[in-house]
Design brief:
This protein has a four-stranded antiparallel β-sheet with strand order 2-3-1-4, sandwiched between helices. The protein has helices spanning 11-15, 19-28, 43-49, 52-58, 60-70, 85-93, 106-110, 115-121, 135-145, 157-161, and strands spanning 2-9, 32-39, 75-83, 129-131. It has ten helices and four strands.
């Protein structure tokens, strides 16, 4: 099943110069980047991504921290397409809490602190990356970050050799 999903390289990934290493992981897995741009989110834009639903599920403080975190610097937004793209991206990224992420995942390789430390320091969990959690999230999030005109499907080597596509 071919799916599309959203990946955000958060400000800490950009500031630490990890963009290339992280993007390579998705391309190496056979996922196709069909949209990419750098964005500086303001409060209104951040609120479109981190909706009130997060406050209902995880609390107002968590949402406020996420809103501040996503505005700390530029973000690289990626629209990615591939077979089971949502599941594959989530596996590559690792669990939300870096301390729980295994080596070999993006979070397991590049970040390590946990919620407890961040709570004591009154800072967000700098976990480098956001990936849509499921199909519903991907369908809601992609149009926030990309217009249809900004998505550029193309035939990749994976389409030809793995999927058997000829066009």
């Amino acid at each position: 099943m071919i799916e599309r999903t959203l990946i955000l390289l958060k400000p800490d990934a950009v500031q630490r110069g990890l963009m290339g290493k992280i993007i390579t992981r998705f391309e190496d897995a056979g996922l196709k980047i069909i949209g990419m741009k750098m964005v500086q989110a303001d409060q209104a834009f951040a609120e479109r991504h981190y909706t009130e639903d997060i406050a209902k599920r995880r609390g107002k403080k968590v949402r406020d921290v996420l809103l501040d975190y996503i505005q700390e610097g530029p973000i690289v937004a990626l629209a990615v397409e591939g077979v089971h793209a949502i599941e594959i991206v989530r596996k590559l990224v690792g669990p939300t809490m870096p301390r729980e992420a295994f080596p070999g995942t993006i979070r397991g390789d590049y970040c390590h602190h946990g919620k407890e430390y961040c709570d004591v320091k009154n800072m967000p969990v700098k976990n480098l990356i956001h990936a849509s959690g499921d199909k519903n999230d991907a369908e809601r999030e992609l149009p926030i970050w990309f217009s249809e005109k900004e998505l550029h499907p193309f035939t990749s080597v994976h389409d030809l050799h793995i999927l058997g596509k000829k066009d």
